[in-house]
Design a protein that fits this description.
Two copies of one chain form a homodimer. Chain A has helices at residues 3-17, 22-29, 33-45, 68-74, 76-87, 102-105, 123-131, 153-159, 185-196, 234-243, and strands spanning 19-21, 49-52, 55-58, 95-98, 117-120, 135-138, 141-143, 150-151, 164-170, 173-175, 179-182, 198-204, 216-219, 225-229, 245-249. Chain A is α/β, with parallel strands linked by helices. Chain A starts with a helix and ends with a strand. The mean pLDDT of chain A is 88. Strand 6 (135-138) of chain A pairs antiparallel with strand 7 of chain B. Chain A binds a DNA duplex through residues 3, 22, 31-35, 37-38, 41, 53-55. Chains A, B: Keywords: DNA-binding, Transcription, Transcription regulation.
DNA sequence: TCACAAACAATCAATGTCAATCATTTATAA
DNA sequence: TTATAAATGATTGACATTGATTGTTTGTGA
């Protein structure tokens, strides 16, 4: 079995199970403990997993961030509808920060013919934006494997050179007390900075994100518009609406 | 069996299976290990696949297969060879500026396993670099339609935040008196800045670029290594060599 | 606190994989 | 046809990966 195959198996085990022991991984892959350990070291180096005594877990509590490709196929239609709603808030001449991620990329087709100016930290976003003939600026930063997002100090500093009428962010967790959270602290800093530079703030989130808490805190709910589809209980909607603006897109 | 046939088989195996070992490919094609390895080297050069220890895997970005394989090769192959020569100058631990453009992108497969740090203004470059697991930084700037290059004041300022051991540029015109030129003044500024921040300077250019003059001046020939294939007359070679270092890759 | 077991990193020998080289076969041109 | 070039397969030494073994560290429960 090839190294890369084995590592893929380890990752998929983790996606199912949150925490997996070294022994389990040995059994599934028919590899020795040494080999598994080496794989774990490798995977940790590339920030796919976090090692714990006895095994490994994903960087995030719940599960690995799916790669962009996986994400984009799963709930694409739902995301597209959420994105369309977000686009309806965008006005002619706006300067916009568009966060990296699979939700926000769905917004781009709706920006066509709007004569807006977009700044983004998502590499695939840049490509798509210019294909649509939209005036696009890319921030600087370190390119993160997997999501192809630009992060780090340079990214944060780079965002500070702009002011935005609106920013549109994706998010992993939305929680009444914990606020907005995301798995990667580096990405969290970038999001924070973008929020700070923006007049109006929109967060795209499908209902599965509600009640979730990820590792790194981004902001609390006050002052952001959350756009989602209807999949929340009336009760949930009500409690959240007390803290922030909630836009619900009918499916 | 024809080389093309065999390579097609390898590609279709990969499309089915994502990761394939050399042995499997040998069995299916009845070719020797050596031949398969040569095929893999070839396919990787042209960015159809990514080699891994023991076999090969598909680059996530799926490219068009049949026509490309038959046709494109001449220019691309030439570019790839020039890029390979450029890569031979790159050492372990180097920090590199990689200019946007179709010549420089060919360099990326040769950077694999070199533990270098790359800064680039090419959006497709960023995507490919992170797929190869190379530490990648993207500068900021305005995204230019067509070439997907980042340009403008922000780009220039952004480059100034780095120092490079080596920079690798593409270029449109190389002329004895006019020096290096390119059509877009915005891109010219970016190239100039990159040159200024670099210890060693490499310019990739196929022979058709010699004698050409484009609109915007980038730099004169002194102090840059020009890498090209042999298509120049001995006379041309000699006169240019008086002004700068000329590396000629045999076809 | 201690003792014990599990988990661990470091090392080593065996095996597998690799690029480079060369001789042979196969295609192509003269 | 012969001469030349290209593709192929086998071989080689260098290097990478692997599993076993070692001694050390870490966590657990008495």
């Amino acid at each position: 079995m090839l190294t890369i195959e084995r590592q893929e198996i380890i990752l998929s085990l983790l996606r199912e199970k949150d925490v997996v022991t070294v022994k389990e991984m040995c059994e599934v892959t028919n590899a020795s403990e040494s080999t598994i350990r080496r794989d774990l070291t490798e995977l940790e180096k590339h920030q796919y997993i976090k090692r714990v005594h006895g095994g490994a877990s994903l960087l995030k509590k719940k599960r690995e961030e799916p790669t962009l490709l996986e994400k984009s196929t799963i709930n694409q239609q739902e995301k597209s509808m959420i994105a369309q709603k977000a686009a309806s808030f965008i006005e002619e001449g706006d300067s916009i920060y568009l966060d990296a991620g699979s939700s926000t990329i769905e917004l781009i087709p709706f920006l066509k013919d709007k004569s807006v100016m977009v700044v983004t930290n998502g590499i695939p976003h840049v490509q798509l934006l210019i294909e649509y003939g939209i005036e696009t600026y890319c921030i600087s930063g370190k390119a993160k494997r997997g999501t192809a997002a630009l992060v780090g100090t340079k990214a944060v500093d780079s965002i500070k050179e702009y002011r935005f009428d609106k920013c549109i962010l994706g998010i992993n967790g939305i929680h009444l007390e914990q606020g907005l959270t995301t798995p990667d602290p580096e990405e969290a800093s970038v999001k924070q900075t973008a929020l700070a530079q923006s007049q109006a703030r929109y967060v795209l989130a499908d209902p599965s994100k509600f009640g979730e808490v990820s590792f790194a805190n981004v902001a609390d709910l006050a002052g952001v518009h959350i756009i989602t589809t209807n999949g929340l209980s009336d009760e949930q909607q009500e409690t959240i609406s007390k803290q922030t603006t909630l836009e619900v897109v009918p499916l």
